[in-house]
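User: My collaborator sent over this chain with a note saying "see what the structure looks like." That's all I know about it. Can you take a look?
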Amino acid sequence: MQIIITSRNAETLRTWRRFFENDPDVDLQVGNRAQVPVDAVLMAGIFAHERYGGSPSHDSAEILVNRRGDGQPPLVIVPPGRRMRLDEHGRPQVHPDHAAIDPAYHTASHVFDAIHQWNETRQETISAIEVSLPLVGFDDPLDESSPQAFRRALTEYRAKLR
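Assistant: Without extra context I'll predict from the sequence alone. Here is the result:
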C-alpha cells in the first residue's frame, strides 16, 4: 500500500522523514493535498463527520464514502478517538483507561485494521492513502513520538499481511 504523508510544514515532514526515509511505499509531500491520486484520506472525526457522515468511535476506524464531489478522495478514513471525560472543572480530559495509549499508534493501528477489513470484503480495494498530518493532529515538528508510533503500527500491519 502506498502512503502519502502531507503537511504544509516542511519541518514536520523533516521529522517524519527520519522514520520513513528508507520505505519505498511512503512518500512525504509538502502541501495541503497529495500530489498523486489516492483512494482515501485519513481525517479526524471533528473534520469528517459533519461533511461525510458516520459517528465517533473509540474502538475502530470507520471508512466513509465521499459522495460530495469536493475534491477529496473517494473514501475518508476516520480514526477512533481516545475516550474522554470531564474533570472536576468541566474540562475534557483523556479517560484514565486511555491515558497510556499513544494517540498516533491508536490512530494508525485502527486505520490499518479498517483498511485490511475493507480490502478483504470489497472488490474496490484501498491501495493508496493520504495521511494529512494537520487533519489528524500530528503536525508538530517537535513531536517525534507520533511518527515513531505510526511507523510501529505500519510495521505490525505489514507483518499481519505476510
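A starting point for your reply to your collaborator: Residues 40 and 75 are 4 Å apart (CA to CA).
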